[in-house]
Specification:
Layout: H1 15-26, H2 31-38, H3 42-75, H4 77-80, H5 82-104, H6 106-114, H7 129-144, H8 146-155, H9 159-213
C-alpha cells in the first residue's frame, strides 16, 4: 500500500505531518523550505526520460528487425513461394520437352545442318518480327556503307603519306593566297594611277587648246620628241 505524503494537505493527518507542523510553528523550518523540498529532483526526471528513450530505441530496433525479415522474405519469395516454384517447374518441364524433341530428331537435324541453306524461308515467331525489321534496316545501311568502310580500311596504311601530301598542298595554297593578295594590291594601285592619269587628261587638253589659240604648236602625243614654236 502506498504511504501517505506528509506534504500533501489533502491527505489524512499522521505523525510526520504533525511533527512538521510543530517545526513550522516553532520556527525551526519555514513553509517555503517545505515547499522547495516537495519538488521532485531533476535527476529523477532525467532517469525517467532516459528509460523512455531506451524503451523507444528498443521498439525501433524491433521494427527494423521485422522490416529486414520482410525484405528477406520478399527477396527469397521466388525461391520459397509455391507460385514461383510452380512457374519454374513449368519452365523446366517445357525445356525438358524441347530437349527430348531435339534428341528424337537428332539425325534429321544433323542432316539438315550438313545441307547448305539457300533460297529457303526460315520461320520466325511473330514476337520477333519487329526486331527482324530493325535488323534488316541495319543490314541495308551497313551494305550501303560497306564500300566506304573498306576504302577507309585500305587507306589506313597510307595515312601518313596522305597527311604529308595534304600538308604540302596546304603550304602551296598559302603561298598562292599570299601571291593573290599581292596581285590584288598591285591591281588596286594600278587602278588608282589610271584614275589620276584620267583626271589629268582634260587639263592637258585644255592647255593644248590654249597654246593653239596663241599660235604655239605642241605635239599632240607625249611620245613625240619634236616641238615647233
Amino acid at each position: 500500500m502506498e504511504a501517505a505524503n506528509p506534504w500533501d494537505e489533502a491527505s489524512a493527518p499522521n505523525a510526520a505531518r504533525l511533527l512538521l507542523g510543530r517545526f513550522v510553528a516553532s520556527g525551526l523550518v519555514t513553509q517555503e523550505m517545505l515547499n522547495i523540498s516537495k519538488k521532485s529532483d531533476s535527476c529523477f526526471v532525467n532517469f525517467s526520460r532516459l528509460q523512455q528513450i531506451t524503451n523507444i530505441q528498443a521498439e525501433i530496433n524491433q521494427k527494423n528487425l521485422e522490416i529486414e525479415l520482410l525484405r528477406l522474405e520478399k527477396d527469397t519469395a521466388d525461391v520459397v513461394h509455391p507460385s514461383f516454384l510452380d512457374e519454374k517447374c513449368h519452365t523446366l518441364q517445357t525445356m525438358n520437352n524441347h530437349l527430348e524433341a531435339v534428341l528424337k530428331e537428332k539425325r534429321s537435324l544433323r542432316q539438315r545442318l550438313l545441307k547448305p541453306m539457300c533460297q529457303e524461308n526460315l520461320p520466325i515467331e511473330s514476337v520477333y518480327h519487329r526486331y527482324m525489321v530493325h535488323l534488316l534496316e541495319m543490314a541495308v545501311t551497313f551494305i550501303e556503307r560497306l564500300e566506304t568502310h573498306l576504302e577507309t580500311i585500305r587507306n589506313i596504311p597510307h595515312l601518313d603519306a596522305n597527311l604529308k601530301k595534304m600538308s604540302k598542298a596546304l603550304a602551296k595554297m598559302n603561298i598562292l593566297v599570299t601571291e593573290t593578295e599581292e596581285l590584288a594590291e598591285n591591281i588596286i594601285k594600278w587602278r588608282e594611277q589610271q584614275k589620276e592619269v584620267s583626271s589629268c587628261i582634260p587639263q592637258i587638253l585644255a592647255e593644248e587648246n590654249d597654246l593653239h589659240k596663241h599660235g604655239i604648236i605642241t605635239p599632240s602625243l607625249p611620245f613625240t620628241s619634236k616641238v615647233h614654236v
